[in-house]
Automatic annotation (TrEMBL):
Native species: Culex quinquefasciatus
Gene3D superfamilies xrefs: Leucine-rich Repeat Variant
PANTHER family: TRANSMEMBRANE AND COILED-COIL DOMAIN-CONTAINING PROTEIN 6, TRANSMEMBRANE AND COILED-COIL DOMAIN-CONTAINING PROTEIN 6 TMCO6
Stated name of the protein: Uncharacterized protein
UniProt cross-references to SUPFAM superfamilies, sorted A to Z: ARM repeat
Length: 373
């Protein structure tokens, strides 16, 4: 049996915080174009957005006061607010200071006008790009409705936009997440994880779960990870987001799995993704190999199943090694060597012999010069 030294430690809190910030920034960069696509069906509204060069904090303050007084926001109000929130944090702060303004946007979100509902969802999404205090207020006034609308799969555009808003609040800090947790976000996400298969929304659900896992087991318990998160995630068609969820969940459990089926299912999930990986996916390859290396380090049954999966897909670790070796990606090569080393230490003699017969790793690999130094 391999020692625990072969297992990757749980990431430090500061690394988790950095990861949350990076994910948040990436979402902010690419989401504007996606929201514009959502607005395209609103016809002239998209042209009006393009005509808005800038929205000042004073304009936001005046608009917030006006919709509060009228207790209603029309399409143009929502478009201007949404665009203004994208432009600066000061605009967001001005809006949040007007007590009751958020309630008007929430009213439009829960109304029967589909166009206003979509724009209200977008408005809250951009508002949630604000700081932790802002996200706490959005969670307080809109969280329950956002969680409910995410589960309304008959309107995917609204559901997806609400999911983005929830992701922003989850990554903002503990306060907003505590509120969302009390509003039932975990059962909602696990239900969607169970019912969705190949779907764009599934990737967003997985990202939300990944962000919650960054809070440690404060909101998703180890028991829930064992019973729900790992089995459901590894049963889906593999993608980068599913690998991240599996890895972070396993880090929290010490790479232990409670039942005999989950670990082999994870191995199958990861190998299916590795088969498709190219040289442009170095980070994804490292993540996949780390999952496998840690699992085989503490579970000798995983060695036999890993060999069987490699044979089934005619997938050889030596070929993967050489692919990244020739491209100079030494970090990936090191991870593969670590995996093969763990397989040799943990597996029985027959298991590793079967691996060598299928994939004569030592004789086939091309060692990059950087590894020989």
């Amino acid at each position: 049996m391999a020692t625990t030294l072969n297992v990757v430690p749980v990431p430090e809190p500061r690394i988790r915080e950095q990861n949350r910030n990076e994910v948040r920034w990436e979402r902010q960069l690419h989401r504007k174009a996606e929201l514009d696509v959502n607005r395209a069906n609103l016809g002239e509204m998209l042209q009006e957005v393009a005509a808005i060069e800038s929205v000042s904090p004073q304009e936001i303050k005046g608009l917030a006061s006006r919709i509060k007084r009228r207790k209603h926001a029309d399409l143009r109000d929502l478009v201007k607010l949404s665009y203004g929130f994208q432009q600066s944090g000061e605009n967001i702060s001005e809006f949040v200071r007007i007590t009751g303004a958020i309630n008007v946007v929430v009213k439009e979100l829960t109304g029967h006008d589909s166009d206003r509902q979509l724009l209200a969802a977008e408005c809250l999404c951009n508002l949630s790009l604000g700081d932790e205090v802002c996200c706490e207020k959005v969670a307080t006034f809109a969280g329950t409705y956002l969680v409910a609308l995410v589960e309304n799969l008959s309107n995917r555009r609204v559901a997806t936009t609400c999911m983005w808003t929830l992701q922003n609040m989850i990554s903002s800090g503990t306060k907003a997440m505590k509120i969302l947790n009390s509003q039932g976000i975990i059962p909602s996400l696990t239900h969607l994880l169970e019912v969705l298969e190949k779907d764009d929304l599934l990737a967003e659900i997985l990202l939300a779960i990944e962000l919650i896992l960054d809070h440690d087991p404060a909101f998703i318990s180890i028991e829930t990870i064992h019973a729900t998160i790992l089995p459901l995630t590894s049963s889906k068609e593999p993608q980068l987001n599913s690998l991240k969820v599996v890895y972070k969940a396993l880090c929290l459990t010490g790479f232990e799995t409670l039942d005999v089926e989950t670990a082999p299912q994870i191995v199958k999930h990861v190998v299916q993704q590795l088969v498709l990986i190219g040289i442009e996916n170095g980070a994804e390859a490292i993540l996949s190999i780390r999952i496998l290396a840690n699992l085989v380090a503490i579970n000798e049954g995983c060695v036999d199943f890993l060999v069987a999966q490699c044979q089934q897909h005619n997938f050889k670790l030596s070929q993967l090694f050489n692919l990244f070796s020739e491209d100079g990606q030494v970090a990936v090569c090191r991870e593969i060597l670590w995996l093969v080393g763990n397989m040799s230490k943990t597996g029985t003699g027959n298991e590793f012999k079967r691996f060598v017969q299928f994939d004569n790793f030592v004789e086939c690999v091309i060692i990059p010069k950087a590894l020989l130094v």
